[in-house]
Structure formats: structure tokens, C-alpha cells
Sequence to fold (220 residues):
Amino acid sequence: MKTKDKKPFLNMDERNKQVAYRIISIMYFLTILSMQAIVLYRQFALGQELRDFEDIAIIMTVNSLFLISALLYFGAIPIRRLKIKSILLIYALLVTLGSIFTYAKYKLFTNAELSFRQLFDKLIAVYAITGIIMLFFILFSILGKRKMEKELE
Amino acid sequence: MENIKLKIARVEKGLSQQELADLCEVTRQTIGLVEKGKYNPTLNLCIKIATVLDKTLNDLFWDENKR
Fold:
């Protein structure tokens, strides 16, 4: 039997691809980890301003958001049913982390003289952005689930 | 665990690892690793190998002792 489903990429067979995917995943993880280390090094060792490495932070954020969305859409993260309780719990966790980072960013690492009102405005932005991100994740999970169900029909 | 059944079936058919690999559209290393039991092939590859060697999946990949 000689079946040719797809044109082979670089003459790779299934094992070659599996090994390549594994190495690519590890390297991706190490790259993200290195970027995080660079951010910390720049911030604490070199004493650079936050705006000096905002580009790296943006790349890391966008990358992570795309990664999680893709994992949800293609069914890599098993979700049987979307429960409001779990969603709220994750939202609360993200909001707490976001609040801690925002507080640390403006109160500990910069000399910005922020009033309570200004800090509150920043925190509101964190809550809103986190909410939007969560909505996107939920949307991708639903779309992914629908796609999967359609394929199973 | 080494897959002796596969090795025997291949030799009985008069095929080298390279020839079997070419017929299954994989590399010789992949066939070698399947025979050595160091790579778990996908079901698609198992079916390809079984078809090329005129055997069933049970003949090549089923271990009665493991049941």
C-alpha cells in the first residue's frame, strides 16, 4: 500500500516530526524563560526604566495570549464544561496577580507619585483588560469545541 | 521491548530495513527504532508496515504475554 496523504516537508517522517516538535517546544519554553530573565536583569541589574524593555514585555504578553488561545481552540487543554465558578476563580486569580504587579510597578519599582485615585484607575484598567482576555479565552474554547463537534459529526 | 516479530516478518519477506522504510515512506532509522522497541509508531504507520509485510496488526504488534 502506497498512500501519500500530504507532500512530505523536508522528507520528514512521523518520528522526525515528533522529535522536531518536541525540540521546538522545549526551545520555545527556554526562549520565553530567557526573555523573562532578560527583563529581570535589565530591571534589577542594569536598573533600566520599564519603558526600555516594554517591547520584550509586549512580545511575551502577545505570545502567551496567542499560545493559550491556540491551546484552547485546538483542544490541547481539556475542558468538559465551562463552569461559571471556575471562570470567576481564574478571573479572581488573574486580577489579584495583575493588581500585585501594578502596585509593585508604580509603588515599588518607579518613583511615580501616584495618588490613591490614580492607582485605582490603573487597577480598573487591569480588571477590564483581564476581563477582555478572559472573554477571548472563553470565546476560543467555545469555537474550538464547536469545531471539534463539527468534525465528529 | 524489542519487536522480534517485526524483524522476523521483514527478513521472511526478504526486505532490508531501508527497503521496508522506502515502501512505508519513512526513514531507515524509524524502522530500526520500531524494531528495537524504542519508538512507538502511529496506527497509520503500523497499518502501512503490516500491509507491506502481508501481515495483520496482531501478527506484528500484539504481544500475547502482555494481555
Observations:
- The mean pLDDT of chain B is 92.
- Chain B touches chain A through 16 residues (CB under 8 Å).
- The first helix of chain B runs from residue 4 to 12.
- The CA atoms of residues 5 and 60 of chain B lie 5 Å apart.
